[in-house]
Amino acid sequence: MSRITAAITAIGGYVPEYILTNQILETLVDTNDEWITSRTGIKERRILKEDGKGTSYLAIKAAQDLIEKKGLNPKEIELVIVATATPDMKAAATAAYTATQIGATNAFSFDLEAACSSFLYGMSVAARYIESGKYKKVLLIGADKNSSMINYKDRATCIIFGDGAGAALFEPNTEGLGLQDELLRSDGNGREFLQATYGGSSYPSTPEAVAEGKHFIFQEGKMVFKNAVFNMADVTEKILVRNHLLKDDIAWLVPHQANKRIIDATSSRIELDDSKVMTNIHKYGNTTSATLPLLLFDYEKQLKKGDKLIFVAFGGGFTWGSVYLTWAYNS
Length: 331
Description:
Order of helices and strands: EEHHEHEHEHEHEEEHEHEHHHEE
Strand order of the largest sheet: 1-7-6-4-5
Largest sheet: 5 strands, mixed
Strand content: 15-25%
Number of helices: 11
Helix content: 25-40%
Number of strands: 13
Mean pLDDT: 94
Shape: globular
């Protein structure tokens, strides 16, 4: 019997209509287009503005896009994972609501949170369920409404983050396609440098904390940048060496979209040409858990069966890692 691997067989995506440009940010905080572009590569980001709509709204839209394109009966989906750092609510799983709303009534579901590495870690989890032979259709969604935790008076964070969602369907493959290898890491010493302190169990929200903006996300930019540059490049190089891959073997690098300079440093480490590096940071900013699937969504028509893809991400916690996957279909 052929070995079962977990292959991506469909992609969906969604970004909100409202576009927050650098020019608009100039009216909100002390910054300008040249400063933002030169330091991050970001020109605009999408923001979900409607009251009462959270991460689940984005996740549902991305999943529905995938279901429609694939012609998939949602009742055939057996597991829904929502990778997110911004769940709708505490206690109530965003994935459970998402699964019900898309008609995946036969699926079980759960949230997975590892900051910007959430979707990357989710790929590993989805693959294990498929490889076990127990499940045949696992829907992994990366979705974040980052604007819900951003202080638009803090130029260190408000210029970076946007909202969006992407979805990927994992199914069994016996041709040797799909997820080949992974290298996942974490270091809890880094959590003080990128987090939203108040609102969790250690520091529950209080009227005073909210009034002082302590529930908004905080980032120590230099420390995060330094660790992201080193660790993303490091795991990317290691997974290539471990799988005896040369740069000419790689069809695409699929890097987390946090900062264009981090992306460039990662591709430079493995001497990969820019034409093989997926980027959309200029139009979406950092959508956290949604960056990797949104890259696949934007580049899907350029992907060919057998293409070797290297995914890499870095996020708060710290969390980071790389996944080697072979693409399973022609668009």
